Amino acid sequence: MSPFLKNLYTSLIVLTFLFSLPYQLRATPVVSLSLNKDTIVAHKIFLLELTVSWKGDADQYLVAPPQVTLPEGIEERGSSFSSTSKGEHYLLNYKYNLCAQKEGEYILTPIEISYWEKGNNKEEKMKTETIHFQVTSFSTAFLGGYWLLGFITTIFLGLFTILIVLYKKQKRSSVDQGADSTVTRETMVSELGQSNAYKIKGDWENYLKKVISIRDKLPTQDKAGKIMGELDTLAERVTYGGFHPTAEEIDLIQRQLEKAFKSAFPNDKDQDLDDIELR
Description:
Elements: H1 3-20, E1 30-35, E2 40-41, E3 45-55, E4 61-63, E5 74-86, E6 89-100, E7 104-108, E8 112-117, E9 123-127, E10 131-136, H2 138-201, H3 204-217, H4 226-241, H5 247-264
Parallel strand pairs: 2-10
Antiparallel strand pairs: 1-3, 3-6, 4-8, 5-6, 7-10, 8-9
Helix pairs in contact: 2-3, 3-4
C-alpha cells in the first residue's frame, strides 16, 4: 500500500472513532468562579459565584456539591443553589455570601469538583482557577470609588463660590457707585445753593469762582473748553478789572450750568432744586 493511501486510511479510522464516541465525551462540563465586586469592603457582604455548565441534558452528568475552602479572615454568611437551562446548555449555580473580617490581600485556592458521566461510574475531576482579591476599609473604598465625583463636586463648588463672591462684589460696587452718585449730587446741589446766594448778593467774583468749581466737577460737553475759557476770562475781568457782568451774560452762564447739571444726573428729579434759582 502506498504511503498516501496508508495515511488516508489512518485518518478515516481516527475520524470514524471520534464521531462514534458518545456525545458526552465531547462536551465535558466547564466550571467558572467569580466575585461580584471589584472592590470588597471589610465587614460588608460580597458574593462568590461558582457555575458548572455543559451542553446537553440535565441528567447527562452528576456533579458533586463543591467544597469551598475559604482563606482565614473570610467567613461564609449563607449560600444558595439553583439550576437552569439556557438553550442547549444546562447550568448549576452555587452562590456564597461571604464577609471579610479585616483588610488585606486574600487568595482563594482552586476548588476541586467531582462529576460522573451518565452511564459511567468513573469519577472525573475539574478545578477552578485561583482568585486573588483585596479587602479594603470603607473610607478607602469610598474615596477610591468616588474620588472623581468628589473632585468634580469640589471644582463646581469652588466655581460657584467664586461666582457668588464676584456677584456680591459687583452688587456692592454698584451700590457704592450709586451712593457716590447720590453724595456727588447732594454736594452739587449744595454748591449750587452757594453760587445762587453769591448771585443774589451781586458778589460776581465768588459767584464765578463757584460756577467754575461746579463745572470742573460735572461732566461737560464742552470738548474744546470754550465755555470754561470764557468763564475764566470773565472771572479775571471781574476780579482784576472790576467788570460787572450783564444780565444776559449771567443768564447764559445759568443756562449752561443747568444743562451740565441735568446731563450729569439725567434720571434724577429736581425737587431739591426748588429753592435754588438756576435761572
